[in-house]
Amino acid sequence: MSESSGPEGAETPVADVAHNARVWNYWLGGKDYYAIDQQVGDHVTSMYPSIREVARADRAFLGHVVRYLAGEAGIRQFLDIGTGLPTVENTHQVAQRVAPSSRIVYVDNDPTVLIHARALLTSSEEGATDYIDADAHHPSAIVDAAADTLDFVDPVAVIMLGILNFIADTDEASRIVDTLMAAVPSGSYLVLTHPTLELGGEANEEAMRFWNENATPPITARDRAEVAGFFRGLELLPPGIISCSRWRPGHAADDEKTVAQFGAVARKP
Ligand SMILES: C[S@@+](CC[C@H](N)C(=O)[O-])C[C@H]1O[C@@H](n2cnc3c(N)ncnc32)[C@H](O)[C@@H]1O
Q1: H or E segment and range at residue 188
Q2: Which domain holds residue 171?
Q3: What is the SS3 assignment for 194?
Q4: What CATH number is attached to the domain comprising 144?
Q5: Which atom of ligand 1 is nearest to the CA of 166?
Q6: Ligand 1 centroid to 160 CA: how many Å?
Q7: What distance in Å separates the CA atoms of residue 241 and residue 255, rounded to the nearest whole number?
Q8: Does some domain include residue 7?
Q9: CB 181 within 8 A of CB 268
Q10: Residues in the chain with pLDDT < 70?
Q11: What is the pTM of this model?
Q12: Helix (H) or strand (E) holding 161
């Protein structure tokens, strides 16, 4: 990461602990990470070689879903929580290419994401983007802040890719999802990805233990039933809860390799 990457006058934060947002950026082939992120990221890769494929599949899933939601589903508002560092094809770029009037609010609690957030604020003239520095543990505060940009009378796509795995307690993760989905009207959507030890992800157990001893925030995997629990009361869209690499609107792509990361989309009735 270049020393000049911080905002004017601010010091670049010292990194002695690997952070998920930066290691994820490293796995995605970005440039916004420190030596410690690379070391931990490489060690995880040696234990769980498919992690880079997981990261890439997760971003590709974001593209497929946002194109579908902004296109066929007619969604114009997106609340992307656990945004990560800006990369190519961020939510607003995908959505506003389909529908320039799309409004997007990004949320993350990582200080490095905050520093780089201005790259997420390049909205089309017709639409809007905003960034909120907030913790997912406080969903009502997120909704309040997002209301400056989003109108909660109209449908909103709540996007939480690779973030509920950082909420260790499943009841707490469900409470967060339920609070967010209670704040949006009928016709809104919930979009999730989540790592699992199923779908061939067994090797991730050891890698996650290493992560939790050497990096932050601590991570947890969930099985299909636990992920299904987050969609309680919502209508799952076909193809359901599936390897995120294979999710396409209405069907599963047969030619894509399975990765140990569930992806699913559901509509609020
Ligand atoms: C695995 S990355 C996923 C990034 C992006 N959503 C994607 O799928 O490419 C998870 C992101 O969630 C953020 N995150 C983790 N815990 C969080 C919390 N409690 N509140 C807000 N953001 C959180 C991390 O900082 C990181 O940027």
Answers
A1: none
A2: 51-198+223-267
A3: strand
A4: 3.40.50.150
A5: 16
A6: 8
A7: 17
A8: no
A9: yes
A10: 1-14
A11: 0.95
A12: strand 157-161
Question: Token match 């990560």: residue?
Answer: 84
Residue 136 CA to ligand 1 center (angstroms) comes to 9
**Which atom of ligand 1 sits closest to the CA of residue 113?**
27
Reported as a single tens digit per residue, the pLDDT across 99-147 is 999 999 999 999 999 999 998 899 999 999 999 999 999 999 999 999 9
Instruction: Compute, in angstroms, the gap from residue 110 CA to the centroid of ligand 1.
Output: 8
Burial class (CB in 10 A: 0-12, 13-18, 19+), 251: exposed
| Total domain count, the chain | 1
What is the CB < 6 Å shell around ligand 1? 20-21, 24, 58-59, 62, 82-84, 108-110, 113, 135-137, 161-163, 166, 217
* Within a domain: 56: yes
Let me know if residue 57 belongs to a domain: yes
Of ligand 1's atoms, which has the minimum distance to the CA of residue 62? Answer: 8
Residue type at 263 in one-letter notation: G
Task: Output the pLDDT for position 1.
Answer: 54
State in Å: Cα 192 to ligand 1 middle: 12
